[in-house]
Amino acid sequence: MAEPEAPRGTGPVTIAHIAETAGVSVPTVSKVLNGRSGVSEQTRARVEELIERYGYRKPPPKGNDTLELVFHELAGMHAVEVIRGVEQVARRHRFGVVISETGRGDAASTAVDDLIERRPRAVLAVAGLSEAERDLLKTRGIPFVVLDPAGELPDDVPFVGATDWRGGQLATGHLVKLGHRRLAFLGEQALLPCRARLAGFQSAVQAAGLTVEPDFVVDAPLTREAGHAAALALLARAGRPTAVFASSDLQALGVYRAAREAGLRIPEDLSVVGFDDLPVAALVDPPLTTVHRPLAEMAAAAAETALSLGRGEEPAQIGVEVATTLTVRESTAPPPAEA
After folding, report:
1. CA 153, 155, 156, 160 torsion: positive or negative?
2. Most C-beta atoms within 10 A of its C-beta, which of 96, 100, 207, 338?
3. pLDDT in tens, 198-218
4. Which of 279, 273, 258 is CA-nearest to residue 329?
5. Could you tell me the sign of the dihedral formed by the alpha carbons of 267, 271, 273, 274, in that order?
């Protein structure tokens, strides 16, 4: 078989010339370049040989001036704070923001395919991306950043999180200083941030020379309903806790409801600390003592990193943790005298 001729002219080789030389269509060459199925091994080998022979390199995607903000579930007050932080950065850089929700299972695959078609300059994913989703974005040349990762990430994935361990330690240390000895913890232990908050809780308890009953550490989703159910069970015990540290403000609101139903006053009979410092924390009665996690600031930092990657720049650091602080309000006090 004769050797394929190089394309005439001075311009770079095109995908059309490779297709013509290989005797296949342009979409077939595109499938080979993008690692897609639907091409026979013989054809794939022929096309790959020509790509190598001509030194063809797929042009990098241009993308458009949009940042895609991806939620698994677009609900709750957390999303509002995240969107606020991202919008501030987008306005400053004159970028548009596309907000999407992936959902789970097959719906997630479809949502990611749609995202690829939109070809944003960069992606900011809240909580995480699956390995398959990360690989797909890398293949398409679309950089991404994970905000507030829910699980462990590979070392090369940029992320922005919070000092959750320190937040747990601050909350628990505050309760210990008030004199509490029977402390309970609520958190969704499948989530990395909650495990860090629990570790901070345990560290502060141990530093005070205290122990915690195993039944006082409750695995519960970060919702008002789950906080309510968990607190009802805790407060029904004969040796009930005098303080509850909830891993989210929404859980803490559920504890408030359970305390009312049990005939307990906050903070006279039960102290409660939340986590996040959502706007609602200052509006409930009594106002909630909580760990301030600056979601809007975290989202802004993640957006800056994503746009930097979209410009082809290397991030100053792969992982960023924004500091948490304790906001003391009126839901905590010394334990009742009989405790």
Report:
1. positive
2. 100
3. 999 999 999 999 998 899 999
4. 273
5. negative
